[in-house]
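Q: Could you fold this chain for me?
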Amino acid sequence: MKKFTKELGPGWITLVENDDYALCRLIFGDGLEVDADEEETPLLKKGFQQILEYWTGHRVIFTLPLAPGGNDFEREVWETVMHIPYGEHFTTPTLLAALSLEDTEENRARVIKAVDDCPIPIFIPTHRAGDPEEEHDEEYSYPGGEDVKGALMALEHPLDLSLIHISEPTR
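A: Sure. Below is the predicted structure, expressed as C-alpha cells.
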C-alpha cells in the first residue's frame, strides 16, 4: 500500500491506494494511523487532481479505480450512493427504496451505518445521503465533520442567482 497527504479543499487529505492500484481510503487529516509508505504514485496524483477539479467546479464524476472493501451489503449501499447525481440528495427513505428495503428501524440503522463507514468519501459521495433540508442531519456523520460536508453540499448547490433581485440604482 501507498499513501500520500496533501493540503486540498477544506484541509489536509490523505489518499491511500491498495496493492491492486485502486483507491481504498480517503482520510481527512494526516493519515498517520495508516501503515503504508508515503509516496505520490501516479494513481494518488490523479486522485488529488480529480479532487481539485471537483473543488473548482470542473468535475462532477470521478474516473478512478476504487476498492473500498466492506461487506456485500455495504458495497451495495455505496454503489447506490455513487448513483446519486451531482447536486442531488437521497433521504434515508429514498435510499431504502433504491435498495428495495422495507423502511424499518433496523434497515435504516444498517443503511446509515454503511454510509457512515464508507472509507472513500467524496469519490463515493456520501455527503449526498441525508436530508438537505435539515440544517444538521443528525442521522449521518461525515468523516471530515459537518464543516466538510457543508462545504461539499455548498459546492454542489451554488447560489441560485435567479432568486436574487437586483434593483435599479436610484437617481
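A (continued): The chain has a mean pLDDT of 85.
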